[in-house]
Amino acid sequence: MSNRSSIIRNVPAVGSNESGSAGPDMMYVVDLYLGNSLVETRNLPGKSIHYANDVSENWDNGIIKIEDNA
Predict the structure, then answer these.
(1) Element (H, E) at 64
(2) Residue 1 confidence (pLDDT)
(3) 47 touches 27 (CB < 8 A)
(4) Mind listing the pLDDT tens digit for each residue in 1-30?
(5) How many CA atoms within 13 Å lie on the side-chain side of 19?
(6) In DSSP terms, which residues pair with 26 in a beta bridge?
(7) Which residues pair with 5 in a beta bridge?
(8) Cβ(14)–Cβ(25) under 8 Å?
(9) How would you write 6-61 as a 3-class SS string?
(10) 31 burial class (0-12, 13-18, 19+ CB within 10 angstroms)?
């Protein structure tokens, strides 16, 4: 699945003070790309970097599927 890629980011969680510190007020998100197009952003509140890495790898390897509602 060479046209799939993903980016893991650490962002302020909803309702946080947006201080930018790493802690419980932060969460990981994984942006899922098909080619150069962003197809989905998965918010992972309360999940570890290891979980985010698994989501990223599963997308890159084609395990995660996105339904096309068109």
Answers:
(1) none
(2) 47
(3) yes
(4) 469 999 999 999 876 554 555 556 899 999
(5) 7
(6) 12
(7) 33
(8) no
(9) EEEEEEECCCCCCCCCCCCCEEEEEEEEECCEEEEEEEECCCCHHHHHHHHHHHHC
(10) middle
